[in-house]
Amino acid sequence: MNKRTLIISSCVTVTVLMSCCTVTPPAGERTTRDAQDAERHLFILSGQSNMTGGLKAGFTKTVENTFGEKNVAVVHHSKSGRGIRFWDKDYTFPDNYRFPGKGVPSERSKQQHGQEYGPLMEKVQEAFKGKPYDTVTFIWMQGESDGKRGLGGVYEKSFLRLLGRMKTDLDRKDIGFVIGRINDSYMSDPHWAAMRDVQVKLAENADHGAWVDTDDLSEPDDGVHFPKEKYPSLGNRFAGKAIDLIQQNNKKR
Questions:
Q1: Are 10 and 53 part of one and the same domain?
Q2: 32 and 133 both lie in a single domain
């Protein structure tokens, strides 16, 4: 056997030995590693009376089925009858605005601005403790109060201010959002129709925004709300849009 043949033979022997000694992790260990490597997602649900516990339940079920229960956190805070100003501390009423049937906004009403943001963020900060998240998505079902009170003209700036504050407080520039467009129960009111248009515009003009159509979930007699049994479906609808946003963003990376 010459020197060249000996070298080749030795290399083949080493390769075979290395292949035989390769150890495949046990199934349980592989599962644990996969879970550790999986992305974790935080969803922040807020709004007024239509942001119900039923909506949260339907939403949570869908995102957990998609990403895994251990990889998902859902924060929920809602308050009935509140305009967006209750989440926006720097809210300003339109020039010369008067509440329908009540007159000029009082100093007391101005002091209410941002009241719901603090309680919401307390829950969010609790969810963040020791738990880094790969994505954060804001789910917003609100606007009925503003639509009925003719406040659509300042809604866009107010929402963007709210979203911007959340990004600053969480030190996350990549927060996506999904808006639920208020239903079509008061389409004869131009203020209501204008509010719907603003909500769609907000979503469609954003890189990480989407909106949910709610018109088919209620009948005229239901008014601004939805039948109780429809809220899980609305939650599922929100979740589907949120999942789409996350997956689309992953493709861009």
A1: no
A2: no
Same domain membership, residue 71 and residue 108 = yes
Query: Would you state the pLDDT for residue 249?
Result: 87
Give residue 210's domain range.
Answer: 40-252
- Do residues 96 and 221 share a domain? yes
pLDDT at 37: 58
What integer pLDDT is reported at residue 11 of this predicted model? 40
Pick out the chain residues at pLDDT < 50: 2-36
27 and 68 co-located in one domain: no
Residues 71 and 185 in one domain: yes
**pLDDT per position as a tens digit, 24-82:** 333 333 333 344 458 999 999 999 999 999 999 999 999 999 999 999 999 999 999 99
Domain CATH for 193: 3.40.50.1110
Specify the pTM: 0.85
Structural domains of the chain, count: 2
DSSP the chain: --HHHHHHHHHHHHHHHHHHH--PPPHHHHHHHHHHHS--EEEEEEESTTS-HHHHHHHHHHHHHHH-GGGEEEEEEE-TT--GGGT-TT--PPTT--BTTTBSPPHHHHHTTTTTHHHHHHHHHHHHTT---SEEEEEEE--HHHHHTT-GGGHHHHHHHHHHHHHHHHT-S--EEEEEPP-STTTTSHHHHHHHHHHHHHHHTSTTEEEE--GGG--GGGTTS--GGGHHHHHHHHHHHHHHHHHHHHHH-
